[in-house]
Write a structure and sequence with these properties.
The chain is α/β, with parallel strands linked by helices. The protein is built from nine helices and 16 strands. The protein binds flavin-adenine dinucleotide.
């Protein structure tokens, strides 16, 4: 039996959809190990967030709700997780892989002297242990691994696990007091600049349109890539080439050192298909590429390809879609 603690991720109280996939992993694993799962949400003024988690089959929704937890500081979040795990009987602590959870979970694992696996995409059970599959080396290797010890920390790739479906039974909510002892204060929250893009985040969108080096400047990016994304109700992304040249912000980068996306439809606009970019998109259900070079590597993995100049093809496509 392995009871599971799911760490919910939210953005100022707005639940990240990938959390539902972490809950999906927990439901699947708890069913095979005859365990149960709880979900923990950490932050300030978390009432609505906690409420939104009640329909997903957890034994309990645990809420660490306190003003000092308002800022997303990894050391404080890890400190709360450590205290919760010490008080309760968990075999697995899991969250959907994201920049923030990859910061928090290894810290909490280290505080509890537990092993940690990131980017898990599969789980199965042997007689006495769980066996995990995780991607390594930019997705080129699928490793089969076990973790020693009774307590395991994991991040899972959201695309690999079906989101849990809401039920009619509501889980009870329990408030968790701040742990005893001094609060970690080595990191100080400086502030945050969030661009109001009005578009969905690429990690959660059903459609992602990404631009590559073919796009010459920020205005063209907004007009071509942004315009096509808006016509499809999708998110925008970019290759690292555009980030490095200052045309797009770092937050849009998709790939090995950017965001990992798995939309229903991924449109690569003037992207060559370097292995580091493909590492971030290969779980997409349908990949469409537009590139003027018929030999571009992106066409090897694209489901549909159009050999064309993006400066003529994209406006035509956008206009057709708008009609
Ligand atoms: C450690 C490491 C990590 C990296 N991480 C990432 C990452 O996370 N994400 C990432 O994207 N890259 C990453 N890279 C960089 C990666 O190797 C590539 O350099 C980058 O992806 C190339 O971006 P691109 O496809 O836009 O540009 P290019 O490779 O230059 O391709 C541009 C494409 O546009 C086409 N094109 C040009 N003009 C037009 C036009 N008018 N119409 C149609 N097509 C046109 C060309 O035929 C070409 O195929 C990483 C590299 C390293 C070493």
């Amino acid at each position: 039996m392995a009871n599971i603690l799911v760490i919910a991720e939210h953005d100022a109280g707005q639940l990240k959809l990938a959390t539902l996939s972490a809950l999906g992993f927990a439901a699947q694993t708890a069913a095979t190990t005859h365990g149960v799962y709880d979900v923990l949400v950490i932050g300030a003024q978390m009432g609505t967030t906690a409420e939104s988690l009640r329909a997903y089959g957890a034994r309990q929704v645990l809420v660490a709700d306190a003003a000092p937890l308002q800022s997303p500081l990894a050391d404080r979040h890890a400190w709360v997780i450590e205290a919760v795990v010490k008080q309760r009987d968990y075999g697995i602590v899991v969250a959907a892989a994201s920049t923030f959870t990859k910061d928090i979970l290894p810290r909490a694992a280290a505080l509890l002297d537990a092993g940690m696996l990131s980017d898990v995409v599969g789980v199965s059970r042997t007689d006495d242990d769980l066996v995990f599959k995780r991607v390594m080396y930019a997705g080129n290797v699928l490793a089969t691994v076990t973790l020693a010890g009774d307590l395991k920390f994991l991040t899972i790739r959201a695309a690999a696990f079906a989101p849990v479906v809401a039920g009619t039974t509501l889980s009870p909510v329990e408030q968790i007091p701040l742990p005893a002892g001094p609060m970690p204060d080595l990191a100080e929250y400086g502030g945050r600049e969030a661009k109001v893009a009005g578009r969905p985040d690429a990690t959660e969108a059903r459609v992602v349109v990404s631009g590559g080096r073919a796009i010459k400047n920020a205005e063209d990016f907004e007009r071509l890539v942004g315009g096509l994304a808006d016509a499809l109700g999708g998110a925008v992304g970019s290759s690292r080439a555009l980030v490095d040249s200052g045309i797009t912000p770092n937050s849009l980068q998709i790939g090995q050192t950017g965001k990992i996306v798995a939309p229903d439809l991924y449109l690569a606009v003037g992207i060559s298909g370097a292995i580091q970019h493909l590492a971030g998109i290969k779980d997409s259900k349908v990949i469409v590429a537009i590139n003027k070079d018929a030999d571009a590597p992106i066409f090897e993995i694209a489901d549909y390809g159009l050999v064309a100049d993006v400066y003529t093809a994209v406006p035509e496509l956008t206009a057709q879609l708008k009609q």
